[in-house]
What we know:
The protein starts with a strand and ends with a strand. 25% of the residues lie in helices and 36% in strands. β5 and β6 (111-112) form a beta hairpin. It is of the alpha+beta class. The protein has helices at residues 19-29, 55-68, 89-98, and strands at residues 2-9, 14-17, 34-40, 45-51, 102-108, 111-112, 118-124, 131-138. The chain has a single domain, classed as YjbQ-like (Jelly Rolls), CATH 2.60.120.460. The protein contains three helices and eight strands; from the N terminus they run ββαββααββββ. The strands form two sheets. Strands 1-8-3-5-6 form a five-stranded antiparallel beta sheet, covered by helices on one side. A three-stranded antiparallel beta sheet has the order 2-7-4, with helices on both faces. It is elongated, with a radius of gyration of 16 Å.
Amino acid sequence: MRQAIVTIQTSGPGLYEFTDKATRFVDEAGMSAGLLTLLVRHTSCSLLIQENADPDVRSDLDQFFRRLVPPADDPSMDYLVHRFEGPDDMPAHIKAALTAVSLSIPVMDGGLALGTWQGIYLFEHRSAPHRREVVLHLA
């Protein structure tokens, strides 16, 4: 078993790939088979496995979620009560509830069993820059 915390600095909403950090973690463990579990330690961002070849995919996903859950100051969101941390906070919690805060990826032949075009992303839902932590657990 091996554990680590990866820090990801964000600069606003969007998808931040960190496949390289997870791959390095697994490589350094030297395990031929296992399961990598990832957990983001925040309630206003999430984790995704998504295409890493075409940047338009990331942009389209970000735009889709912005339309699906607009900021709290949008008239369609006037029912929201939690507004203390700004108009992007409660929508960020909703987006995180709709996506995943943990992932499990098999390790096969000493590497992540991701598909050819798959990457691991932190999906930042807040407008301001944040320092996000993702726990990596390999067993």
